[in-house]
Write a structure and sequence with these properties.
By secondary structure, this protein is α/β, with parallel strands linked by helices. It is built from 17 helices and 16 strands.
């Protein structure tokens, strides 16, 4: 192993999702949200969780109060209160925000200090000497009250380039006052990896443990952090799913996985890393920030394979096109089915779904069918449920829970409380023909109501089916209103979610096909759990 990759005796993984990550545009976290995310971060095994800035806003103050009162029990992590050096012209002992850090009752405190001379002059409007005294006084005061103190040197890299002697003096002052770790911050995210080494090495000569805090404005936050680690820092900061101001912070899960799986360092407990995918998606759900499917290690597409050449190799050895075993981070390999698919893709996808497609002729026939249908506008890589229905049809095991006799839908300019659309669906269900009407807000909603009413007597489980997402795309835009339309529908039964696809010359036609597939697939999956019910007599109103 490269000598640069020798783990230090102590290494800190420091999460700042609840503080720096929460500064992302449009992101709002309640106290309950922060408590829930903190528990998830602790499950990931990080060493430190920066909870926010007590005294700066009421919700952060309440968060620390509730944590201190027992609302947050942590097994792996220590909670950190964040703040700033005392104000110009005062003392740390008299500064109310410094006192708020003590009132937060955390073992560890992290304070931000100016390390760029221009920021001292123009933001603080004070002298370089006074700024150093602010650092010294605040750190010493917190240490004297039994706190472990970390110091974030804001804009350190820009400050070093402008005035290296002063930037280093800020580090030295913090260390002499008792700071345990001094963190070098690329606050505006402008650094590149090749620029890191010399600056970090110069800072390391002071003799205090160093950390790194990078923003992603150049797209290099993770790379810059790893370059700093190779140069000697022993403390890395980041956020879950790259949340943060502007383009975000270094992605903490990517950092952890790289350090644990590539450097070979145990930076979190080994049993925690397989929880990474679950935790990243859970945090995304709480923050209401959609997960990036292409996020390294834990994204939905991180181990998804589409090209036929890849699939052929993966049949021989999955590791030929994967840099790690995805289960190490709690993820899984996915085979995508598209017009780029070869026979190997189809066979592997069939195996993934539980079907034997070892017959080469059968697999080749299905492959050609998929390619033909993709040419017509279908997209099976996004709709596993529709692909499985296609497979079952080709295998001769399609389940005919019902036959569609006819359907139609009307939309009016008059909007009533029950909606503006009315649909009629006529089905043959276990020998009985039913034609039922549904009303709703828009054609799809009306069709969904009518289809559900027509099926619920024979299959009560459809009451649990709920459409959760609906996407429409015009495929050949040059044809105007005569274009081909593709729709994708996500449906859930409360236990699982599945996606189906429909294609047609109109939005309504495409939507009906995707809706029809959604109910068929849901009934297939429920058929082993729910025995068929005898059909009750038709209600005269519905007959």
């Amino acid at each position: 192993m490269n000598a640069l990759h020798v783990a230090p005796d102590t290494f800190h993984v420091f999460d700042t999702t609840l503080r720096d990550g929460a500064q992302q545009e449009g992101l709002r976290l309640s106290v309950l949200d922060k408590l829930r995310i903190a528990r998830l971060l602790d499950e990931l095994g990080v060493g430190f969780i920066e909870g926010g800035w007590p005294g700066a806003n009421p919700s952060d103050t309440e968060f620390f109060a509730r944590a201190a009162e027992g609302a947050l029990e942590l097994r792996h992590a220590k909670l950190v209160a964040f703040g700033a050096t005392r104000k110009v012209g005062s003392t740390a002992a008299d500064d109310p925000q410094v006192q708020a850090l003590l009132d937060a009752r955390t073992e560890v405190v992290c304070i931000v200090a100016k390390s760029h001379d221009e920021h001292v002059f123009r933001a603080l409007r004070t002298t370089l000497a006074e700024n150093l005294e602010m650092v010294r006084d605040t750190v010493a005061h917190l240490v004297s009250h039994g706190r472990r103190v970390f110091v974030d040197c804001e804009h350190f890299f820009d400050g070093y380039r402008a005035n290296p002697d002063y930037a280093l003096e800020v580090i030295r002052t913090a260390a002499e006052a008792g700071a345990e770790v001094v963190i070098l911050c690329d606050t505006n995210g402008g650094m590149l990896p090749s620029w890191m080494g010399d600056i970090v090495s110069a800072a390391a000569q002071i003799g205090v443990d160093l950390g790194i805090h990078c923003h992603n404005d150049t797209g290099c936050a993770v790379a810059n952090t790893l370059a700093a680690v190779e140069a000697g820092v022993m403390h890395v900061q980041g956020t879950m799913n790259e949340t943060g101001e502007r383009t975000g912070n270094a992605n903490l899960v990517t950092l952890i996985a790289n350090l644990q799986l590539k450097f070979g360092w145990q930076v979190i407990p080994p049993e925690c890393l397989p929880e990474a995918t679950r935790i990243a998606h859970a945090v995304a759900a709480i923050t209401n920030v959609p997960m990036n499917n292409r996020q390294p290690y834990v994204g939905l597409s991180a181990f998804a394979h589409k090209a036929g050449l890849h699939a052929s190799a993966i049949k021989v050895d999955a590791n030929l096109y994967q840099h790690i075993d995805p289960t190490l981070v709690g993820n899984d390999m996915r085979m995508l089915v598209s017009d780029m698919a070869g026979r190997a893709n189809i066979q592997l996808k069939g195996t993934e779904l539980g079907y034997d497609l070892s017959d080469r002729e059968l697999a080749a026939r299905i492959t050609e069918l998929v390619k033909t249908r993709e040419m017509d506008g279908y997209s099976y890589e996004s709709a596993d449920a529709s692909f499985e229905l296609l497979l079952r049809g080709e295998l001769g095991i399609a389940d005919d829970f019902y036959d569609v006799v006819s359907w139609r839908v009307f939309t009016s300019s008059v909007v009533r409380p029950e909606g503006d659309s009315e649909a009629t669906v006529k089905l043959r269900v276990r020998g009985v023909t039913e034609g039922l009407v549904g009303e709703g807000h828009g054609p799809l909603n009306a069709l969904d109501v009518a289809l559900r009413r027509a099926l619920v007597r024979a299959y009560p489980q459809v009451e649990n089916f709920e459409l959760t997402d609906y996407r429409v795309r015009i495929l050949d835009q040059g044809h105007g209103t005569d274009a081909i339309v593709r729709t994708l529908i996500d449906t859930t039964d409360g236990e699982r979610t599945w996606t189906t696809v429909g294609v047609g010359s109109s939005v309504v036609e495409a939507s009906w096909e995707a809706l029809h597939d959604a109910y068929r697939w849901g009934l297939i999956r429920r058929s082993t759990l729910d025995a068929p019910q005898p059909l009750p007599a038709l209600d005269p109103v519905d007959a």
